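Limitations
The structure tokens in this dataset are predictions for the assembled complex, not deposited experimental models. Users should treat interface geometry with appropriate caution, especially where small molecules or nucleic acid strands are included. An illustrative entry is reproduced here so readers can see what is and is not provided.
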Amino acid sequence: MTWPLAILIIFGCLVVLMITGMPIFLAFMLTCVVGALLFWGGLAGMEQLLMSVFSSITSFIFLPVPLFVLMGNVIFESGVGGNVVDGVDKVLGRLPGRLSILAIGAGVLLGTMIGMSGGSIAVLGKSLAPDMRARGYKKEMALGPIVASGTLAVLIPPSALAVIIGALGKVSIGDLLIAIIPAGLTLAIMFCAYIIIRCKLQPSLAPEYAVSHVSLSEKVKIIVRQILPIGIVIFAAIGVIFVGIATPTEAAALGALACYLLAAVYRKFNWRVLKESAKSTVHISVMVLMIMTASLSFSRILVSSGAIAGLVNLSTTLDVPSIVIVIATQIVVIFLGCFMDPASIVMISVPIFFPIVQALGFDMLWYSILLLINIQLGLITPPFGLDVYTMRALSPPDVSLGDVFRGSTPFLIIGFLLMVIIFVYPPLVTWLPSVAG
Amino acid sequence: MRRVQVLLEGDAGQVSSVKITEKIWSALDKTITAMMVFGAAIIIIDMLAVSVDVILRYTLDITYTGLFEIMEYSLLWMTFLATAWLLKINGHIRLDLILDRLNPRRKVIANIATSVICEILMGFLIWYSVKLTVNDFIYGTYLSTVLQPIKWPIEIIIAIGYILLFIVMLRRIIELVKTWQSLSSERLKNAPSPPGGEMS
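Predicted assembly:
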């Protein structure tokens, strides 16, 4: 079977099953069954498929997932997340699209406590989205910034995805975590600029409302009480990696514990917080991990069918300048991002693309950041944008998946714009690690 | 008189069978919720175990090398323990772009069709996961890792998870069929009567 036909069968099957409204993990699994029957030697492939489910989920790279989600849920359930959002809310003045900007600002702060995009979306989706709706914000201006905040959670350390890319691509994880900081902050500034300009042009998207005056001394108090204590969590979840005390999984566990301690310091820790945070973590983690069990088998079937190799061949055998090949690899990642989860994309793209890009003489730190942003943006690209599904899962029934995708599109474009900026101006991400030595 | 008695006995039998069915579903609900609670407990235990391990390593130079491996297996258990609960509360992600555009009756029919396909898939997965577990049990397969554990007690949760998913999906199909029947009867009631219909 030729690889274009294999792609047609696999993706055709997946898209049709998804459209029927089948749970995504089952759509993936059924596609995997078809793929296993076609490319893994008929019924014999079924056992391999089940073994793949076992090996994919018992992988150390997924260990931080529930712990990072737990961090976010503790922050939300205890009300500490609300404290942070409230703190930023009081410090923030009167601005066009104020709550959307608040989502971005709080997204940056939450990003320091939550290493997975879904966690940040969960906190803001539960705390800010209802307020936005109540104040008459249009769906696109309410949903888009919250989904975009998920992108920031990955581009502000700790970032599980950055750690996975660094580990598999043999790029210094420390450098990678430092390098993503300016990228994340630049993206946050670009998001805010977009919101302000868009709301100036179309005020009906985010109606203005009266903001109570807060004095300077009160603002300082708020910062000290509500924002600075986040430092404890930042040290537990990021600092320990920088000083070499703990691995990312250990940092995730320490971070979650620090979140509980922070809740206890604020006297907000109780049995309900423990129960609800664990329950919500199970909800989000299982939702994601069940897809991951199937999608890993899916990526392996793609490799077995020759589809990935065919795509890679197509993009690397062309007689064109090397920079075009790098762009081609990013385009392939964009394509993969439409259908696959970040971990699967990393596991396929890093072993294939890294040797090629390295041989072409490009800076691997720079390429890793591009890959990280690209894969993260894949979480908000249709039809399989996991962050969009997370936001939809947190929204009231009248919010459709289409509404969330429409709201996220401008932020997706801004994300790609950031990639272009990094592409033409690499020091944006390579400068800080070189200074840090 | 005898006819009335037979009818009453028939009703009583039906009522008791409904009660038994309710009891079975209630027991199933409790089992599924208990499994989710175990899953949640696993996450908290993992967090505490790793944190304690880090603290002990840097204070008393004590560490347990197999901890990460146990955590990997706990991740599998947590996922498959709670997956049926997630399906029960309709928490699994699904693409509803097309379904949302259908009228309620067609939506129910589409849901029944996809649920039946899922049920067949689940049956397939149960068969192969049970087969794999039984084979590993018979041959005493070990995992070639640091702890070298026997494989079947770890992987058995995959089969259990799929079996529970199968049951929850079956229950959903029954409920969907009931909804479809009530929607169909409502549709018949609301349909305009044919000319002379009332006469006949």
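Some entries come with short summary sentences. For this one: Residues 366 and 426 of chain A are 6 Å apart (CA to CA).
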